[in-house]
Amino acid sequence: MTKIGLIGAGGYAGVNLLSILLRHKEAEVAWLMSEEAHKGKKITELYPHLLGLCDLSCQTFDDLDKVLGKADVIFLALPHGLSLKYVPKMLAAGKKVIDLGADYRFNDEAVFKKWYQLEHPDKKALAEAVFGLPELYKEQIKKARLIGNPGCYPTASILGLAPLVKNLLIDPDSIVVDAKSGVTGAGRGISLKVHFCERNEGITAYAVNNHRHMGEIEYQVTRISGDQEIRVTFVPHLVPMNRGILATCYAKLIKEIPTNKLVGLYKEFYKGQAFVRIYENGEPCTKNVSGTNFCDIGISVNEATGTVIVMSCIDNLIKGAAGQAVQNMNLLLGYPEDEGLKQIAVYP
Do residues 113 and 23 both lie within one domain? Predict the structure, then answer.
């Protein structure tokens, strides 16, 4: 049985991670941490839906030295810039670490600084961290001790684009990603943009041309393409639903390829990947992946314009955060990749 420490249990990603770990046959959650305001509170005071399922109370970073030795694997679900302070100590103690934040997603210090305006103090660990997208980096993940779990928008976008850029089928300067997310992507904190009256019955673009996930998408698709520099136009939107992401990716094909050929290419590319589902025809919907670790992908070609359109759907809190983190843990520890992740979407 693997002992788990979970930091950031008070947030949406953290509580979804806890929910998955509670049904994982090989995991035992040893301790939880959250912000100072939650100190000493039972997790059921923050999330009553866990009554009778988890009796743990929240600790804070003041308790880290006391509980560090009680966990084999530590998950951090924190805003960017916070994990930097604690990961070195965890690695030095011999722990496996999975960071759901952004602090270890880039191996390049200059790229991290560009997008997060922070000097990275942990350059050695940054260089060795593995980007936790199992469908692309499974073998590296199995050997890692530090995983930088991908962001939610990048997960949907990169999985949608990877077969095209890997096979050099599209103009690298033509990629546009139009992505829409449920409001949980903004976290549990209170702000005007997630106020009910602001979001209900409305949709808005935000962080146009400077969303930090654009840098993550560009960094990874450039690597996948064989270091052919790729720039992406990325526009995220908030829509009035709780969870889910639909990333619609557009690009110019460099030669004529019919839709059915591309569907076959995607099926071959993701052959054996338990959590990627390729649609034969039709368009994926966020409802079909809600609460699951699946990424559903549909492909269509506009033959008149030579444009390929890839529609990629995930649950932002599961495949986009907590579920993917557990998928990474399973690979790290040699457990079945889908352990704890076999849930089916609630439908309708």
Answer: yes
Q: Residue 216 CB: number of other CB atoms within 10 A?
A: 25
Q: Which CATH number belongs to the domain containing residue 81 in this structure?
A: 3.40.50.720
Matching residue, tokens 């049904």: 23
Would you state the pLDDT for residue 192? 79
Query: What residues have CB less than 8 Å from 277, skipping those under 6 apart?
Result: 294, 295, 296, 297
State pTM to two decimals. Answer: 0.96
Low-confidence ranges of the chain (pLDDT < 70): none
The encoded tokens of residue 90 equal 């965890």
User: Residue 329 falls within a domain, yes or no?
Assistant: no
What is the extent of the structural domain holding 234? 152-315
Question: Helices (DSSP H) in the chain: which residue ranges?
Answer: 12-22, 43-46, 64-67, 87-92, 109-116, 123-128, 134-142, 152-166, 196-199, 212-224, 259-269, 323-333
CATH number, domain of 191, equals 3.30.360.10
Check if the beta carbon of residue 320 is closer than 8 Å to that of residue 268.
no
Q: Alpha-carbon Rg of the chain, whole angstroms?
A: 20
3-state secondary structure of 62: helix
Residues 222 and 311 in one domain: yes
Same domain, 159 and 120: no
In a domain, 141, yes or no: no
Assigned domain for 138 exists: no
How many domains in the chain? 2
- Which of 152, 249, 295, 313 is catalytic? The answer is 152
Q: How far is CA 148 from the centre of its chain?
A: 9
Establish how many alpha carbons lie within 13 A of residue 281's alpha carbon, considering only the half-sphere containing its beta carbon.
2
What pLDDT is stored for residue 199 in this prediction? 84
For position 209, what pLDDT does the model report? 87
152 is catalytic: yes
